[in-house]
């Protein structure tokens, strides 16, 4: 009699993070195919059973055991005060791959300058629980109302005095003529797990392996490989110019007077470094993308 195959029930975020998450999984080694009007995408791993759900609800589903694990925002696990295991921080987003920020913003011409000026005022936000606890701890009495969307516009329309809103680039906030008076918190994407699932040896190993590869894919997204041929007389000078995760790899070529030098470096510096390397004698310089760095 064949044993039933184990499966991990995994929640993927719907909405703004959906495409970025699917792309990250592909780079980490999993191909996910969303189906139109279907909340159960196909994945090329028989050990995974995927569901799509809103990040705002993910931690509740994981806490209840409806999902073994999921990807959501730190902000929503804090909002729901869910009893879950935070396995790993995965810092990526739909735009900048930096943590998002929840900020308190008011109209550009508002007399409100500080948090204390919000005493007795009305604030609109999706992050009601976190906002209420924040202002209560400060001893500032405010009225917090839940926003179903278009939060920034409510200040412009005069419906509320301020908003607590999430931002990556501040573009939307500036476009509505708002002014940030306080940064409430930073948030990033997290891989979370149900406590019972985490105690299951098979599920725990599966989750840990997934996080290892996802983190490797994220790390690789910020760096590139660089390979070049270097004459012996320039070797020390060029190696000294190369930043690296570890020391650059240096290998001899069939021509004893030349070496192959290889390293990985940040994308931010490669455009400045390559011309300098070429100027001092590096040849056959190749830049290549990386899928994962573990």
From TrEMBL:
A cellular component term, taken from the record's GO annotations: cytoplasm
Principal subcellular localization: cytoplasm
Reported regulation of activity: Feedback inhibited by histidine.
Pathway the protein acts in: Amino-acid biosynthesis; L-histidine biosynthesis; L-histidine from 5-phospho-alpha-D-ribose 1-diphosphate: step 1/9
Reaction it catalyzes: 1-(5-phospho-beta-D-ribosyl)-ATP + diphosphate = 5-phospho-alpha-D-ribose 1-diphosphate + ATP
Protein EC: 2.4.2.17
Domain Histidine biosynthesis HisG C-terminal: 220-292
This protein's UniProt keywords: Amino-acid biosynthesis, ATP-binding, Cytoplasm, Glycosyltransferase, Histidine biosynthesis, Magnesium, Metal-binding, Nucleotide-binding, Transferase
NCBIfam families cross-referenced by the UniProt entry: hisG, HisG_C-term
Family assignment from sequence similarity: Belongs to the ATP phosphoribosyltransferase family. Long subfamily.
Cited function: Catalyzes the condensation of ATP and 5-phosphoribose 1-diphosphate to form N'-(5'-phosphoribosyl)-ATP (PR-ATP). Has a crucial role in the pathway because the rate of histidine biosynthesis seems to be controlled primarily by regulation of HisG enzymatic activity.
Name of this chain's protein: ATP phosphoribosyltransferase
Lineage: Bacteria, Pseudomonadati, Thermodesulfobacteriota, Desulfobulbia, Desulfobulbales
UniProt gene name: hisG
């Amino acid at each position: 009699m064949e044993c039933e195959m184990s499966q991990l029930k995994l929640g993927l975020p719907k909405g703004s993070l959906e495409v970025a998450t699917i792309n990250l999984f592909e780079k980490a080694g999993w191909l996910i195919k969303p189906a139109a009007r279907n909340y159960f995408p196909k994945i090329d791993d028989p050990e995974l059973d995927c569901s799509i759900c809103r990040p705002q609800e993910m931690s509740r589903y994981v806490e209840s055991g409806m999902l073994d694990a999921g990807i959501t925002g730190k902000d929503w696990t804090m909002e729901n005060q869910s009893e879950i295991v935070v396995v790993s921080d995965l810092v990526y987003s739909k735009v900048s791959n930096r943590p998002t920020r929840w900020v308190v913003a008011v109209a550009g011409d508002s007399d409100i300058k500080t948090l204390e000026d919000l005493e007795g005022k009305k604030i609109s936000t999706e992050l009601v629980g976190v906002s209420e606890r924040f202002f209560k701890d400060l001893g500032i009495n405010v009225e917090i109302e839940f926003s179903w969307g278009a939060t920034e516009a409510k200040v412009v329309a005069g419906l509320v005095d301020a908003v607590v809103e999430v931002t990556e680039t501040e573009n939307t906030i500036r476009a509505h003529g708002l002014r940030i008076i306080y940064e409430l918190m930073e948030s990033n994407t997290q891989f979370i797990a149900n406590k019972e699932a985490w105690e299951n040896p098979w599920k725990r190993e599966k989750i840990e392996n997934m996080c290892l590869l996802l983190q490797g894919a994220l790390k690789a997204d910020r760096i590139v490989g660089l390979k070049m041929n270097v004459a012996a007389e320039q070797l020390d000078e060029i190696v000294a110019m190369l930043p690296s995760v570890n020391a650059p790899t240096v290998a001899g070529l069939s021509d004893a007077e030349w070496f192959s030098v290889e390293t990985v470096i940040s994308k931010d510096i490669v455009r400045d470094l390559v011309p300098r390397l070429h100027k001092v004698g590096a040849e056959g310089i190749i830049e290549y993308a990386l899928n994962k760095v573990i």
